[in-house]
Design goal:
The protein is an alpha/beta fold. It has two domains: 162 residues, 3-Layer(aba) Sandwich (Rossmann fold); 69 residues, no CATH class. The protein is built from eight helices and ten strands. The strands form two sheets. A six-stranded mixed sheet has the order 6-7-8-3-9-10, sandwiched between helices. It is globular and about 50 Å long. It binds adenosine-5'-diphosphate and magnesium ion. It comes from Pseudofrankia inefficax (strain DSM 45817 / CECT 9037 / DDB 130130 / EuI1c) (Frankia inefficax). One of its GO terms (molecular function) is ATP hydrolysis activity. Keywords: ATP-binding, Nucleotide-binding, Transport.
């Protein structure tokens, strides 16, 4: 069974994410500027363990959606549910990763990873052990006493991963996380993310504007149109797992990329 089929089989049970008829409006920048409707009537369901990519042009509302799932902002209409409960605010059950890795420059890598549990008064020996283990998993076992400025871009990303994963999130929300990396580091991070997902099967909502990245990573790609943001098409990526960069050269991959690109182009 492919992962898409598994995701569909899981869809009959409890969805991990449900976005139902969501509307989000932002006030104009000045008093006279009109309000801006960022999203309207937006629907999306994500199955447990699914890797879903959100793809769309700049300004179509991808970050707005992710911020509502993270609990940083709230819809003006409709519902945003995670594990069948309305999102009311941020929580450690949802790990958020941005383009710029969020690390405190004055804390060592290990202390960055332990920051969340410590702030929630949950720092015990077991959590500390898990943090050390996670740093090994992300290849930073030898860098745990280093400070963020001593790390390369890719290492910083992996430290930010460990910082999120130590909370054992049920949902990973990633907003163009590899957008600022050089091509070689980006491929390494994509491979790292796929290995991690293959192992733990955390539900992932991954925002990107890169067609190839969406097709390589996702079980499904939700192609969005903008002004206001809506679902343009949802495309199943029925390619076998595990996937790697070599798969991007197959005919099937090229066909899927074309299908995604056509859905994007239809919008204009
Ligand atoms: N805090 C905000 N205040 C005003 N307008 C916003 C705010 N956040 C987003 N917008 C507007 O909402 C639309 C969607 O933005 P965003 O979700 O950031 O798009 P994307 O992430 O797809 O590039 C854009 O027109 C943007 O200008
Ligand atoms: Mg964005």
């Amino acid at each position: 069974m492919t992962t898409t089929q598994q995701a569909r089989a899981g869809a009959g049970t409890r969805p991990a994410v449900e976005i139902i008829g969501v509307r989000k409006q932002f006030a104009g920048r000045s008093r006279r500027a009109p309000a801006r409707l960022a999203l309207d009537g937006f629907d999306l369901t994500v199955a447990p363990g699914e890797f879903l990519c959100l793809l769309g042009p700049s300004g179509c509302g991808k970050s707005t959606l992710l911020n509502m799932l993270a609990g940083f902002s709230h819809p003006d209409g409709g519902e945003v549910l995670v594990d069948e409960r309305p999102v009311t605010g941020p929580g450690p059950d949802r790990g958020v990763l941005f383009q710029t890795p969020m690390l405190f420059p004055w804390l060592s890598v290990l202390d960055n990873v332990l920051y969340g549990p410590r702030a929630r008064h949950e720092l015990d020996a077991e959590t500390r052990g898990r943090a050390v283990e996670l740093l090994e998993t992300v290849g930073l076992g030898d860098a745990r006493d280093a400070y963020p400025h001593e790390l390369s871009g890719g290492m910083r990303h992996r430290a930010a991963f460990a910082r999120v994963l130590v909370n054992r999130p049920r949902l990973l929300l990633m907003d163009e996380p590899f957008g600022a990396l050089d091509a070689i580091t980006r491929v390494a991070m994509q491979r790292f993310l796929l290995d991690l997902w293959q192992r733990d099967r955390i539900t992932i909502v991954f925002v990107t504007h890169d067609v190839e990245e969406a097709a390589l990573l996702g079980d499904r790609v939700c192609v969005m149109s903008g002004s206001p943001g809506r679902t343009r098409a949802v495309i199943d990526i029925d390619l076998p797992r595990p996937r790697g960069i070599a798969d991007t050269e197959t005919l099937e991959f090229v066909r899927l990329k074309r299908q995604i690109r056509e859905a994007l182009d239809n919008e204009h």
